[in-house]
Amino acid sequence: MLVMLQFSKYQGLGNDFLLIDGREDQLTQHVINPDPAWVRKICDRHYGIGADGLILALPPRADGDLRMQIFNADGSLAEMCGNGIRCLTRFLADIDGDLCVQRWNIETLAGIICPILQDDGQICVDMGSPFLDPESIPTTLTIGSAGLPQGECHLGGTSLNVAAVGMGNPHVIVPVEDLESIPFENWGQRLEKHQAFPAKTNVHFLKIHSQNQLEIRVWERGSGPTLACGTGACATLVAACLLGLSDDHAQVLLPGGVLQISWPGRRGSVFMTGPAEPVFDGVLTPLLTPTHTEVLPQDD
């Protein structure tokens, strides 16, 4: 008997995801532990549905209400995603309707994350404390005078001053004077795979507008250029605070929109507030189910 696989597509500041509800433990192992080729196929914007990643809502393993499992567009498993967890929160609220609570404890590979659906529809997420120890990020950069991993990354004949922060996943922040004139894709791709980041890294180029307004361009690990990155916005604020470039709360401008990020007292949890919206619901055709996936060509 043919089983139809339902999905929903949501976006947070243009960072879009495919979401599948598996909280009743009804998904097959082909979906829960997918072949990366299948994830690449359904996330492909020409041969599949198109998305920056795939998110599964699964039964909890510990004390959470549910477990989030997220895959990047290249099929790799991700530890966490700020825009993704906001999309998951809006998805849960929409499908559960009147039965829905306003707060969830969601198990992730970065620990328990607690999003709250606010009355205005915005979603505030307690993202937990940032990781500043090099081994926990991970990075080979050493702790600098600002109290976080700092150093130079050499890209051929160019040296970039960078700082690293973990939000359950690795981030490198690169302050620049002008976001438009940098060779964004060249630097982003090379920094993602730089030897200073043994698990690869998300890359954020940062321009300071004021103590309360930051702007970043995002190169996400496993996805390339995206319109937004929630964990990246959090990591950027932490780095900017410690480097003396910003206050402990700021607007973070991304290509897809604005997030409000705060790190009260520069200790403890980082809080992210922003939107998430549905795009459409659908059902995968048999040719797009995990057991019928053709392998797409990959870049070298």
Structural class, from secondary structure content? alpha+beta
Distance between the termini: 39 Å
The name of the CATH architecture of the largest domain is Roll
Kindly provide the name of the CATH class of the largest domain.
Alpha Beta
Largest sheet: 19 strands, mixed
Per the principal axes of the C-alpha atoms, what is the gross shape? Answer: globular
Name a few traits of the molecule.
single chain, 300 residues, alpha+beta, Diaminopimelate Epimerase, Chain A, domain 1, 19-stranded mixed β-sheet, 5 helices, 16% helix
Descriptive report:
There is one protein chain. With 300 residues, the protein is α+β, with helices and mostly antiparallel strands. The chain folds into 2 domains: 5-114 and 277-292, Diaminopimelate Epimerase, Chain A, domain 1 (Roll), CATH 3.10.310.10; 134-268, Diaminopimelate Epimerase, Chain A, domain 1, CATH 3.10.310. The chain has 5 helices and 19 strands. It has a 19-stranded mixed sheet that branches. A hairpin with a 2-residue loop joins strand 16 and strand 17 (257-262). The longest helix has 15 residues, at 82-96. The protein is globular. The protein starts with a strand and ends in a 16-residue tail after the last strand. The mean pLDDT is 93.
